Structure formats: structure tokens, C-alpha cells
Q: What sequence folds into this?
């Protein structure tokens, strides 16, 4: 009889769900494209008391009770509990995440770039429209932080590309795709395009956005479009 009781207790212990633990997370200000069962949008998180540059990782599941608002950084306390195997959904996470408390909510500084910008200067020199084509627009870009994309025109051809890095004053662009339209005067596009690809740092100064190289030398200066 004692043996049977011991075995029954052991069986119950084996089926017991592990205790829930809580951790401090940071949640980034925008979701990113990712692939789970299929294409989806993922939150980016860091399990840390402070934000560490470049340490964001995708979260392929939901946080129960957390209502995410794009454009804000969150510092949150999250509980984690392991699910019983029978309760794990197909292709789902074996861990359930639940919001315990929002510790901080602050504007994501990257969203200061989320706007339309027209080129004002190249290498510190103010640019002007070509004299022989005054109707031709100056280069202009649109930065979409939510989608981590840049698009616009070099003054002749349309351009589009991804933003591969954007944090702590640093920005890097992926390969830029462009149309192949021929224009009479390509002086500005020929100067603009290489510098756009060389950009490593950014700074917002009022209505101006400055792109710089690794040494913080100004390459391109844009003005916010009203």
C-alpha cells in the first residue's frame, strides 16, 4: 500500500506544471517582418534591464495582456510559464508569456526620422536645381521606420531599399534599387547616390536631418517637408 501511494505522488509530481518566473524585457518601437508558420510581423525584444545596442531578437508569439503601440519603447515585466505538452498549439510556443506590469513607456527616438525629407546640401554645399531644367525636383526620401524602408528619388530615378540598422544615431541602408530613366543633367544624382550608400550615422537638428559617415563628417543634409 505504501509503495502504491509513493508511486501515485511521484506521478502527480511528474505532471506538475513548472512554476512561473518573471523577467524584465524591453520591447522595440516597431514590429519587423519575420517568418513563423508563414510570413508575419514580430515584436523585437531584449531580456535585459537596459537596452543593449544590436541585441534585439524576434518574438514569434504573443504576450498575453500586452497592447503594443507602434512608436514607443516599452520596459515591461513578463511572466513565463511552460505549457503542458497537450496544451501546446500546433507550431506554437511551448512557453506562455503574460504581461505583469508596464514599467516604462517612452517615445522611440527613431520615429523622429519617420517623415518626408528633401535634399538641402551635399558635403556641406547647398544644392540648387539644374539651371537647364528648373522643373526637375531635388532628391527627396521618405523614411518609414515602421516598415524599416527608405524610398524616394535621386532627382531623376525612383529609389527604394531597406534600412538594416537604425538605433543610437546609427543608420545603415541595404542595397538600393532604382529605375533606369535617362536625364539630361545627372550631376546631383551622381553625387547624391554614392553618399546615400556611405551613410553610417544620422542626427536630427530641428527641421533638418543630417546623414554622416563613420567619422561624423556630414555627407547629406535634408529638410523636413511641410
A:
Amino acid at each position: 500500500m505504501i509503495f502504491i501511494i509513493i508511486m501515485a505522488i511521484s506521478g502527480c509530481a511528474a505532471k506538475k506544471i513548472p512554476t512561473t518566473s518573471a523577467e524584465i524585457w524591453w520591447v522595440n518601437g516597431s514590429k519587423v517582418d519575420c517568418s513563423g508558420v508563414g510570413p508575419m510581423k514580430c515584436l523585437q525584444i531584449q531580456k535585459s534591464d537596459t537596452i543593449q545596442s544590436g541585441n534585439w531578437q524576434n518574438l514569434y508569439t504573443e504576450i498575453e495582456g500586452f497592447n503594443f503601440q507602434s512608436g514607443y519603447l516599452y520596459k515591461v515585466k513578463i511572466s513565463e510559464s511552460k505549457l503542458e505538452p497537450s496544451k501546446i498549439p500546433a507550431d506554437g510556443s511551448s512557453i506562455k508569456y503574460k504581461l505583469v506590469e508596464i514599467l516604462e513607456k517612452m517615445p522611440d527616438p527613431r520615429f523622429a526620422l519617420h517623415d518626408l525629407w528633401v535634399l538641402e546640401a551635399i558635403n556641406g554645399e547647398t544644392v540648387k536645381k539644374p539651371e537647364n531644367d528648373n522643373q526637375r525636383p531635388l532628391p527627396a526620401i521618405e523614411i518609414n521606420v515602421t516598415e524599416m524602408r527608405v524610398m524616394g528619388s535621386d532627382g531623376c530615378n525612383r529609389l527604394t531599399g531597406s534600412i538594416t540598422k537604425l538605433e543610437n544615431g546609427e543608420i545603415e541602408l541595404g542595397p538600393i534599387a532604382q529605375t533606369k530613366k535617362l536625364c539630361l543633367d545627372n550631376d546631383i544624382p551622381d553625387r547624391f547616390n554614392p553618399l546615400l550608400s556611405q551613410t553610417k550615422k544620422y542626427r536630427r537638428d530641428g527641421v533638418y536631418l543630417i546623414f554622416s559617415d563613420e567619422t561624423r563628417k556630414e555627407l547629406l543634409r535634408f529638410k523636413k517637408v511641410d
Summary: Confidence is low (pLDDT under 50) at residues 3-9. Residues 24 and 80 are 11 Å apart (CA to CA). The radius of gyration is 25 Å. The longest strand covers residues 95-107.
